[in-house]
C-alpha cells in the first residue's frame, strides 16, 4: 500500500504547480487528423498577429506543402504578421529513413524563400544535440494568436490524412492568452535566440560540425530552461499548466512521475512505442498492488510507423516494432494476474494500414496530460519535450474527454493473455535473426534507450 506520506508527496507536487485559469468554452477537442488539418489551415488563414509552428518536421509532400503555402499566403496578405517555423535541425537536412539525402526539406525551404521574395517566413532549425540519434526537437504546439493547437503530430501527408492513409494522434485547441504568451516567449528566448539555432531556409547555413560547440551549450541551457509564470488559478477550478523539459530530472518528467501515483481509481496511458522507463513501470505495478485500475493503449506492431510489411525490402529499422512487442509481452507476462482480474487492461490499436501515434495520460476524471512525449527512455533523457497539463476537478470537460477515449478505443482489441502476442519464434526469419544477433552482443539494451 502506498504510504500516506508518499501519497501526500505526489499530491503536493501537483497542488504546488502554478496553474493558469481556463475557460471551458475555450477548449476544443478534435477527433480525427483531417479535422486537425482543416483547423490548422483555417487558423493560419485567419491569424491576425502571430503564427509560430513548432514540429519535429515539416515535410516536402502534399500535406506539408499545403501548410507552408498557407503560411506564405497569410504573410503576403498581412505583412505585419509575425510568422515563424521551428523544426529539428538534423531531421530537416536529411531525407526519410532509407531515402537519399538529395533534395531535403531544407532545400525545399530555400526554394520557397527564393520563389517568394519579400515575403519572410523564417524556418529555424533547432539542434538539440550534435547528432539526431542523441536528441531532437520534440517540443509540440502551433501557436496562433491567443490559441495553441496542440498535437503530437508532425506535418506531412500521413499525419494530416492528406491522401488515403493516416497516422492517428490527439488534437486539442486551447484558447488562453496567458498560456500562449508564456509558451511563445519561451520559444523566442530559448529556441529562436538560442546558441546554434540557424535558419534552414538559408542556403549558406553552417554545417553541423561547425556549430557543435554551440549545440553543446544550447543543450546545457535547455536543461535548465523552464516556463516561468505566476499562477492565477487555485486547485478547485479548471486550469492549465504548460510544461517543458530536457533530461532525466526535468520538471516535465517529475510531473509525469508524480501524476501516476495520484490515481484514486483509474490511470489510462497512450503510447505508440511500448518502452516505458523503469520508474514508470514501478509506478504502474504499485498502483495495481494498491487495487487501482490501469489501462494502456498501444499500437499493434503493424500500426507502428516503423513497421515494414514482409513483401517489402527489410531494413534494420523495421525490427523496432518487434522489439516493442517483445517489451509488451514481457511486461504482460509479469502482470498476467492483474490482466486476469481486469485490473490491468492492455489494448492494441489497429485500423487497416493506418498507423498509431497517440500519447498522453488521464488520471481519474481530474487530470489530462496533452503531450508529444512517447513515455520512453528517449523522451525521458534525450529529446526536448513539452506538455499541457489540464486540471479539471469539476469535470467540466468530461463529455469531450469521454468522447476522445471512446474513439481511441474504437479500433482496439484487449489482450487477454501475454501469449496472445507473438513470440520471437513467430517473427519473419530476417527479424528473428537480427533480434537474436542484437541480443548476443547486448546492443538491444542500447537501442531501447535511444529509440
Q: What tags apply to this protein structure?
A:
451 residues; alpha+beta; Endonuclease, Chain A; 2 domains; nine-stranded mixed sheet; eight-stranded mixed sheet; 14 helices; 36% helix; 19% strand; globular
Major sheet strand order: 1-11-18-17-16-12-13-14-19
**Known CATH architecture of the largest domain:** 2-Layer Sandwich
What's the domain count?
Answer: 2
**CA-atom Rg in angstroms:** 22 Å
CATH structural fold name of the largest domain: Endonuclease, Chain A
Task: Sum up the overall morphology in one term.
Answer: globular
User: What is the helix content?
Assistant: 25-40%
Total count of strands: 19
Give the number of helices.
Answer: 14
* Distance between the amino and carboxyl termini: 34 Å
Strand content: 15-25%
Give the CATH level 1 class of the largest domain: Alpha Beta
CATH superfamily of the largest domain: Endonuclease Chain A
Which class best fits the helix and strand makeup?
A: alpha+beta
Largest sheet: 9 strands, mixed
Poorly predicted runs of 5 or more residues: none
Mean pLDDT equals: 94
Organism: Silvania confinis
Keywords: Lipid biosynthesis, Lipid metabolism, Phospholipid biosynthesis, Phospholipid metabolism, Repeat, Transferase
Domain PLD phosphodiesterase: 133-159, 352-379
Protein name: CDP-diacylglycerol--serine O-phosphatidyltransferase
Amino acid at each position: 500500500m502506498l504510504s500516506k506520506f508518499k501519497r501526500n508527496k505526489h499530491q503536493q507536487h501537483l497542488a504546488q504547480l502554478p496553474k493558469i485559469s481556463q475557460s471551458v468554452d475555450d477548449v476544443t477537442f478534435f477527433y480525427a487528423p483531417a479535422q486537425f488539418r482543416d483547423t490548422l489551415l483555417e487558423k493560419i488563414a485567419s491569424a491576425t498577429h502571430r503564427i509560430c509552428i513548432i514540429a519535429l518536421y515539416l515535410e516536402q509532400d502534399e500535406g506539408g506543402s499545403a501548410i507552408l503555402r498557407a503560411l506564405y499566403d497569410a504573410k503576403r496578405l498581412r505583412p505585419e504578421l509575425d510568422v515563424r517555423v521551428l523544426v529539428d535541425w538534423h531531421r530537416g537536412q536529411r531525407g526519410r529513413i532509407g531515402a537519399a539525402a538529395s533534395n531535403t526539406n531544407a532545400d525545399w525551404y530555400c526554394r520557397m524563400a527564393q520563389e517568394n521574395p519579400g515575403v519572410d517566413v523564417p524556418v529555424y532549425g533547432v539542434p538539440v544535440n550534435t547528432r539526431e540519434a542523441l536528441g531532437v526537437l520534440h517540443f509540440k504546439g502551433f501557436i496562433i494568436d491567443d490559441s495553441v493547437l496542440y498535437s503530437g503530430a508532425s506535418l506531412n501527408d500521413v499525419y494530416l490524412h492528406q491522401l488515403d492513409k493516416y497516422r492517428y494522434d490527439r488534437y486539442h485547441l486551447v484558447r488562453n492568452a496567458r498560456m500562449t504568451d508564456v509558451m511563445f516567449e519561451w520559444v523566442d528566448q530559448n529556441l529562436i535566440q538560442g546558441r546554434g539555432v540557424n535558419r534552414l531556409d538559408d542556403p549558406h547555413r553552417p554545417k553541423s560540425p561547425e556549430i557543435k560547440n554551440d549545440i553543446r551549450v544550447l543543450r546545457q541551457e535547455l536543461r535548465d530552461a523552464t516556463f516561468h509564470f505566476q499562477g492565477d488559478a487555485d486547485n478547485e477550478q479548471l486550469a492549465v499548466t504548460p510544461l517543458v523539459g530536457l533530461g532525466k530530472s526535468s520538471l516535465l518528467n517529475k510531473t509525469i512521475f508524480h501524476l501516476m501515483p495520484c490515481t484514486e481509481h483509474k490511470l489510462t496511458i497512450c503510447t505508440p512505442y511500448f518502452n516505458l522507463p523503469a520508474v514508470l513501470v514501478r509506478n504502474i505495478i504499485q498502483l495495481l498492488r494498491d487495487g487501482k485500475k490501469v489501462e494502456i493503449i498501444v499500437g499493434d506492431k503493424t500500426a507502428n510507423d516503423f513497421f515494414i510489411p514482409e513483401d517489402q525490402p527489410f531494413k534494420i529499422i523495421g525490427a523496432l516494432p518487434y522489439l516493442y512487442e517483445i517489451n509488451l509481452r514481457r511486461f504482460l507476462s509479469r502482470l498476467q494476474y492483474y490482466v486476469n482480474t481486469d485490473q490491468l487492461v492492455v489494448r492494441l490499436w489497429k485500423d487497416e494500414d493506418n498507423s498509431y501515434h497517440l500519447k498522453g495520460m488521464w488520471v481519474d476524471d481530474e487530470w489530462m496530460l496533452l503531450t508529444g512525449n512517447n513515455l520512453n527512455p528517449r523522451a525521458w533523457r534525450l529529446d526536448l519535450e513539452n506538455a499541457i497539463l489540464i486540471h479539471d476537478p469539476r469535470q467540466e470537460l468530461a463529455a469531450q474527454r469521454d468522447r476522445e477515449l471512446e474513439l481511441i478505443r474504437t479500433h482496439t482489441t484487449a489482450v487477454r493473455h501475454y501469449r496472445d502476442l507473438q513470440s520471437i519464434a513467430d517473427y519473419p526469419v530476417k527479424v528473428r535473426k537480427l533480434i537474436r544477433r542484437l541480443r548476443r552482443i547486448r546492443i538491444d539494451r542500447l537501442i531501447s534507450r535511444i529509440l
